[in-house]
Amino acid sequence: MVISAIQGELESLADSAHAAILQRFFKTGPGEYGEGDRFRGLRVPVLRKVARKYRHLPLTATVSLLQSAFHEDRLLALLIMIQRYYPGDAALRGEIHRLYLKHRGLVNNWDLVDASAPHLLGHYLRDRPKDLLPRLAASRVLWDRRMAIIATLDFIRQGNYDETFRVARLLVEDPEDLIHKAVGWMLREVGKREAAVAEAFLQAHYRLMPRTMLRYAIERLPEARRQAYLKGTVA
Fold this sequence. Notes:
By secondary structure, the protein is an all-alpha fold. The chain is globular and about 65 Å long. 67% of the residues lie in helices and 0% in strands. The chain has helices at 2-12, 16-25, 44-53, 59-66, 71-85, 90-102, 110-125, 132-137, 142-150, 153-157, 162-171, 177-193, 195-205, 211-217, 223-231. The protein has 15 helices and no strands.
């Protein structure tokens, strides 16, 4: 009944015109990465507000919400999990992390990954062994691989770049554009904090990088330096 009430509330906030835009933006057509996904047309600030309202939703109900056919319902479930995770004790954080991994097949678009992986995967692994990340990076599932690299944003924020580089090496020749963008983005985040460290990695690997990955990674560099990377003339 709680899930029905939440979904009824979401439906009351729905915007069919915006839903049509989102279905195109998130590539829901035949053969596209979000094929068959359904949207209500809700904006993220609205969902964050609803998540705060239901931040004490039991985890069993949250998982049920995560199983919804609607994209925004799944995002809401993830936002609620994050709301529960941070104030939780070690046992609750561990339970949420395990549920996240168990049901990660439902975290099946880039925004869902990006909203959740730094928190429910990266933060949890911050002071723990990180062997899970290379395993996810080796997965045939696109979203697992994106999780692996996006999770490292938490480490980057702590000044730890080793795992970002470790996963980036595994994904540097990945065939998927959404992985190119994610890896480039994380390398750019490293560069915002430690330019020399990021450039050392780039100089060693940029010739292998797909163009999109490289462009994302060097976006904040001076124009002359950007052009040198794009032309392959960096010493």
